[in-house]
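Long-time lurker, first post. I've been practising inverse folding by hand and with some scripts of my own, and I keep getting stuck on stretches where the structure tokens seem ambiguous. Below is the full token string for one chain I'm working on. Before anyone asks, I'm not after the true native sequence, just a reasonable design that respects the backbone. If someone could post their per-position residues I'd love to compare against what I wrote down in my notebook.
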């Protein structure tokens, strides 16, 4: 009886060790993979709604692939209407270390009560090697300022 219980204990411990090994094999690479190093690219998808003229989904690739719309800036690609200037703007933000462009407005920020229009935008992808998932609106002064800071990545919707 003791021999059988000992054997069952050994089998249970081996199964547990195997499970732990399998989990570590899966989790350790994830822990060390991390985000790409800063400065390793800009690839964004911009979705705009509520605009009379600029609604839609466009891709912006600032990976230096040589495509340029003639507006300068080290080459931007994708189907964004102004990839060169948009990539230049992202490069300016990266050079100044201004990662706040994609951060939401703090809930305690004092914002003017003005309405900038019905336009909304979502930007997802990678910017300066970091993941981006940001939403924009023109619902108050702070949100309008965020939108304007990212022109021409976001369209000029002012009248």
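-- Answer (accepted) --
I ran through it position by position. Result:
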């Amino acid at each position: 009886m003791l021999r059988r219980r000992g054997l069952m204990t050994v089998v249970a411990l081996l199964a547990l060790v195997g499970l732990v090994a399998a989990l570590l094999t899966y989790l350790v690479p994830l822990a060390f993979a991390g985000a790409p190093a800063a400065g390793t690219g800009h690839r964004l998808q911009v979705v705009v709604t509520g605009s009379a003229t600029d609604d839609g989904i466009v891709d912006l690739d600032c990976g230096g692939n040589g495509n340029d719309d003639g507006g300068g800036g080290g080459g931007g690609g994708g189907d964004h209407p102004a990839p060169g200037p948009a990539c230049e703007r992202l490069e300016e933000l990266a050079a100044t270390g201004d990662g706040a462009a994609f951060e939401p407005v703090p809930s305690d920020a004092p914002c003017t009560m003005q309405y900038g229009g019905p336009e909304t935008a979502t930007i997802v992808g990678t910017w300066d090697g970091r993941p981006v998932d940001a939403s924009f609106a023109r619902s108050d002064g702070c949100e309008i300022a965020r939108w304007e800071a990212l022109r021409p990545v976001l369209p000029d919707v002012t009248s």
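A couple of notes from the structure itself: The radius of gyration is 24 Å. Residues 65 and 75 are 6 Å apart (CA to CA). Happy to go over any region you disagree with.
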